[in-house]
Design goal:
Blueprint (H helix, E strand, L loop, with lengths): L6 H24 L7 H17 L23 E3 L9 E3 L1 H14 L7 E7 L2 E8 L2 E6 L6 E3 L2 H4 L33 E8 L2 H13 L8 H9 L4 H6 L3 E7 L10 H10 L9 E3 L2 H14 L7 E8 L2 H7 L9 E5 L4 E13 L4 E13 L2 E7 L3 H7 L6 E5 L7 E5 L24 E3 L6 E3 L5 H12 L11 H9 L14 H5 L2 E5 L5 E3 L2 H14 L4 H7 L7 H11 L2 H8 L12 H6 L10 H13 L1 H12 L21 E5 L7 H10 L3 E3 L8 E4 L5 H9 L2 E3 L1 H10 L15
Helix pairs in contact: 1-2, 16-17
Bound molecules: adenosine monophosphate and zinc ion (ZN).
The site of adenosine monophosphate has 11 residues, from strand 3.
Length: 731
C-alpha cells in the first residue's frame, strides 16, 4: 500500500498496525496458533518500520518493531536471560541480502570478513544452561529478556546432553582468569533450536486426529507446544530434536569465531546442523541460499531460510546490536512455499448476516508442512480479479502457517470449456434471490427466515460474547431447529427441560437405539438458559446481531440508552438528512444514535432498520415476555458488589471465557475493567499467552492472577488477598 502522506493518517495507520502486530505476536508466540502467514506478518512489520522511519516522531519505544517475541506465559516460571536472546532481521530476497552484506563490509571498513551460512531451522528457540558441565536449566526465548523455565520438559528430549563432553573442556590457558591447570567448566549457556522432524509431525497429527485432539498447524507449532506441556511425559512422547548453534559467552571458552563455536558445540556433544559453510564473498553466500531453497523439500525437518552471520566474534562485537537484533547476522527468508492443485468446486457459505462467501475446494496438498483442501475466495470481485474457474489448476500457498490462500490459476492448464464462475442468484440455503448492494462487494441473502442465517444467528446469541448460554453449541441448536423447537432466539426461553432431555441427537447407539440428550445435560442447559436471562444490556444488543453492531458499539449504546425501549424509541426518530441546506454537523446532532461516541450514521441507519422491522419488534416482545432482562436499570445487581473499587486488566486468551465475557463477569461484581496497566491496577488477569501487559504488571509489582484464580474469584465473589481499593487507574 502507498504510504500515507499526512501525519494524521500515518499516525492512525501506525496505531492500527501496532495493535494488529501485537495481536499476531500473541497468537504466534504465546498461543502457538498463528493466524496469518509469515509473509503477511513480515509485510505488516515492514510497513510499520517504514512508517516509523518516515515519521520518526511517531516511533515509540514500546512499538512491536522494538521488541523480540512475547513475554512468557504465567504457566512456567520466568527465567531472566543473563545475556539477551535477540531476534534476527530479515532479508526478503537477494537484493536485501546484498544490501546487508554491503552494509556490513562498509561498517568493518572493508577489512577481510568471512560469513558463516547456516540453515534457519523452523522450530522454537532454546537456551540450555550448564553449570559445572551439567545441565541445570532449559528456557524458551520468551521476549528475549525473560523466557520460561522448561527444564523438566527438555530433560525428556533425547539429544540434549545432560553433561558436556570432556573433549570440550577448555584448557586452563584458554579460560580467562583460570588459576588451575585443568580449568573448571565455566558456566555455559548454549543456544539453538528445538524442532519436530517432518515425519514425526505427520505422525503426531495423525494420532491427534485419531484421538479427537486438535491437529497442529505446522511442525514449528508442534515443537513449541510440545515443550510447553504441563506434563513432561507428554513432551517425552513427542519426537523432538535440537540443533544448537550459539553460546551466550563464547569468549569464556576461548573461542574467536562462529565456526569455532559450532565446532566446540559438536565436541561438547550437541547436535549441530552439518549444512554449514564459511564464505569469503557474496556470490558464495548466494549460492548457499539458492541451494538451500532447492534442498528444502527433501530435508527431514522444516527450514524457513538461511542465517548469515559474520564469522569473527571480534567483528561481531564491533557491529553490535540494534534494539532487537544483531547487526552481524541476517535471516534470508525463503519465498513462501507455493503448490499447485486442482480446483474442484466453489462452494458458497451463508453467514449470520446473510453474506455469501465463496469457498474454494481443491485436491488436498501439503504446503509448508500441513495439508490443506480449502480456502476462502472472499467475494465475487476477488474471484474475478484472480480469474479462477472450477477445473483450473491453481497455485495455493501457506507460508509456513495457517491461512491458506489461492493465488490464481495457471492459464495454460485451463481445461477447455471452463466457465467463469458466477455467484448463485439464489441463496444455497433458502433458495431466495440474493442481492448485491451498490458499492459493496458482498452478495447477501436478505431473507430473514433463511435457515443458514438462522442457525448462525441462534449460535451467535448463545455464544460466549453474547448471552453466553453455556453448552448450547451448533450441534444441539441444529437438532432443536430440525425438530421445530427453535425458530428465533426467543425460543431458547420457551424450551422445556423434559423435551430437551428427550431431544433426539440424530445418532444411534451400538444397539441401534437413538441417542437422546439426556436429563443431566438438559438440566445444565436449562440452568444456563436461565442464567442468560440476566446478562447485561450490551450483551443483548450484541447478541441480536444487528448489522455493524459489534461488542464495543453494543456497550456504547447500552451505556447511552440504558434499555432496549429507549434505543427503539431513539431509532423511531428520523434525523435530518445532510445536504439541502442541512450541514453534516446539524444532521449528526439531530440523530440521537449516530451522535453516540463510536457509532456514527452508518451504524445508526442499521439500528433504525433493525427496529423498523415489525418481526424484530415482535421478537423483542417475546424476549421480554419470556423473562429476558432488556434494561440496565431493571437489572438490580444480581450479586453483591464485592469487587467494587478494584480495577482489573485482562490480557491474553483465557480458556473458559472470551475476554469480553470475563470483563462482563467482573463488572457484574462491581469491578472496573481497564485496558492498560498502571500502578493503580489492582490485578492483572493473565491468560495463557500474556503479552506486554503482564510484563508491565510484573514491572510495577501489580498482582497477577491466572485463569484458575479468576474462576474461583468469580465463584466466591472475593478477590484473593484483598488489595486496597484505589481511585481511577486510567489517568
Ligand atoms: P525470528 O524468530 O524470525 O526473529 O528469527 C530468529 C530466530 O531464528 C531465532 O530466535 C532462532 O530461534 C531461529 N533460528 C533458527 N535457526 C537459526 C540459526 N541457524 N541461527 C540463528 N537463529 C536461528
Ligand atoms: Zn438464504
Amino acid at each position: 500500500m502507498t504510504p500515507p502522506v499526512d501525519r494524521e493518517s500515518a499516525a492512525a495507520r501506525t496505531q492500527a498496525l501496532r495493535a494488529e502486530i501485537e495481536r499476531h505476536n500473541r497468537m504466534y508466540y504465546a498461543l502457538d496458533a498463528p493466524e496469518i502467514s509469515d509473509a503477511a506478518y513480515d509485510a505488516l512489520s515492514r510497513e510499520l518500520r517504514e512508517l516509523e522511519a518516515a515519521w520518526p516522531d511517531l516511533a515509540v519505544s514500546d512499538s512491536p518493531t522494538q521488541k523480540v517475541g512475547q513475554a512468557p506465559s504465567a504457566q512456567f516460571a520466568p527465567v531472566a536471560h543473563a545475556v539477551r536472546m535477540y531476534s534476527l532481521d530479515n532479508a526478503m530476497g537477494l537484493d536485501e541480502l546484498d544490501a546487508w552484506l554491503g552494509r556490513v563490509r562498509e561498517a568493518v571498513g572493508y577489512r577481510a570478513c568471512e560469513f558463516v551460512c547456516e540453515l534457519k531451522i523452523d522450530g522454537s528457540s532454546l537456551a540450555l544452561t550448564y553449570e559445572d558441565g551439567a545441565l541445570l536449566r532449559a528456557a524458551t526465548r520468551g521476549d528475549g529478556r525473560t523466557g520460561e523455565n522448561i527444564t523438566v520438559n527438555v530433560r525428556q528430549v533425547a539429544d540434549v546432553p545432560t553433561h558436556l563432553d570432556e573433549a570440550a573442556r577448555p584448557a586452563a590457558h584458554d579460560v580467562q582468569g583460570s588459576l588451575f591447570d585443568i580449568a573448571a567448566w565455566p558456566a555455559t549457556e548454549v543456544r539453538g533450536e528445538i524442532y519436530m522432524p517432518k515425519a514425526s509431525f505427520e505422525r503426531l497429527n495423525a494420532e491427534q486426529e485419531a484421538s479427537g485432539g486438535s491437529a497442529f498447524a505446522n511442525p514449528r507449532n508442534a515443537a513449541a507446544g510440545s515443550v510447553r506441556q504441563k506434563d513432561p511425559q507428554v513432551t517425552a512422547s513427542r519426537d523432538l530434536a535440537t540443533f544448537m548453534y550459539a553460546i551466550a559467552e563464547p569468549r569464556a571458552l576461548g573461542l574467536a569465531r562462529q565456526s569455532e563455536v559450532l565446532e566446540w558445540l559438536r565436541r561438547a556433544g550437541f547436535h549441530v546442523n552439518p549444512d554449514v559453510i564459511v564464505c569469503a564473498d557474496g556470490p558464495s553466500v548466494h549460492e548457499f541460499c539458492a541451494s538451500a531453497i532447492k534442498r528444502r523439500e527433501s530435508l527431514p525437518y522444516e527450514i524457513d531460510g538461511v542465517v548469515v552471520k559474520v564469522d569473527s566474534l571480534a567483528l561481531q562485537d564491533e557491529l553490535g546490536y540494534t534494539s532487537k537484533a544483531p547487526r552481524w547476522a541476517i535471516a534470508f527468508k525463503f519465498p513462501p512455499e507455493e503448490k499447485t492443485t486442482v480446483l474442484r468446486e466453489i462452494r458458497v457459505q451463508v453467514g449470520r448476516t446473510g453474506n455469501l462467501t465463496p469457498l474454494a475446494e481443491f485436491d488436498p496438498v501439503t504446503v509448508a508442512g500441513s495439508t490443506i483442501a480449502r480456502a476462502t475466495l472472499h467475494n465475487i470481485d476477488e474471484i474475478g480479479r484472480k480469474d479462477v474457474r472450477v477445473g483450473d489448476t491453481i497455485i495455493v500457498r501457506k507460508a509456513g502457517d495457517v491461512i491458506p490462500e489461492v493465488l490464481g490459476p495457471i492459464l495454460s492448464l485451463r481445461p477447455k470449456g471452463a466457465e467463469i464462475w458466477r455467484m448463485p442468484t439464489a441463496c444455497p440455503s433458502c433458495g431466495e434471490p440474493v442481492w448485491r448492494e451498490e458499492r459493496e462487494v458482498a452478495t447477501r441473502c436478505v431473507n430473514a427466515g433463511c435457515p443458514a442465517q438462522r442457525l448462525e444467528r441462534l449460535a451467535h446469541w448463545a455464544g460466549r460474547g453474547s448471552l453466553d448460554i453455556d453448552g448450547m453449541g451448533y450441534e444441539i441448536i441444529t437438532r432443536l431447529v430440525d425438530t421445530g423447537a427453535l425458530h428465533d432466539v426467543s425460543d431458547f426461553y420457551a424450551l422445556d427441560e423434559q423435551d430437551l432431555a428427550a431431544l433426539d441427537m440424530g445418532r444411534v447407539k451400538q444397539d441401534g437405539a437413538p441417542v437422546a440428550l439426556g436429563p443431566i445435560v438438559a438440566a445444565k442447559l436449562t440452568a444456563s438458559i436461565d442464567a442468560s436471562r440476566r446478562r447485561s444490556l450490551a450483551r443483548v444488543f450484541f447478541g441480536l446481531g444487528i448489522r455493524h453492531v459489534g461488542s464495543t458499539v453494543a456497550e456504547a449504546l447500552a451505556a447511552e440508552f440504558g434499555s432496549i425501549d429507549a434505543l427503539a424509541e431513539a431509532a423511531s426518530i428520523s434525523p435530518l438528512a445532510a445536504g439541502g441546506g442541512v450541514t453534516l454537523a446539524a444532521a449528526l446532532a439531530s440523530d440521537p444514535i449516530a451522535r453516540v461516541e463510536g457509532v456514527g450514521p452508518k451504524i445508526a441507519e442499521s439500528v433504525r432498520a433493525f427496529f423498523g422491522n415489525a418481526e424484530n419488534r415482535a421478537l423483542i416482545e417475546r424476549l421480554r415476555e419470556r423473562g429476558v432482562v432488556l434494561a440496565e436499570e431493571k437489572r438490580a445487581p444480581a450479586r453483591p458488589q464485592t469487587l467494587a473499587g478494584l480495577t482489573f486488566v485482562l490480557t491474553g486468551a483465557l480458556e473458559a471465557y472470551s475476554r469480553d465475557a470475563a470483563g462482563a463477569a467482573l463488572k457484574e461484581l462491581g469491578a472496573k475493567v481497564s485496558g492498560s496497566v498502571s500502578k493503580k491496577t489492582s490485578f492483572v488477569v493473565a491468560g495463557d499467552d500474556a503479552g506486554s501487559k503482564l510484563a508491565k504488571a510484573l514491572e510495577l509489582g501489580v498482582s497477577v492472577l491466572d485463569e484458575e484464580a479468576l474462576v474461583s474469584m468469580l465463584d466466591t465473589g472475593h478477590a484473593p488477598g484483598f488489595v486496597a481499593a484505589t481511585s481511577d487507574p486510567d489517568e
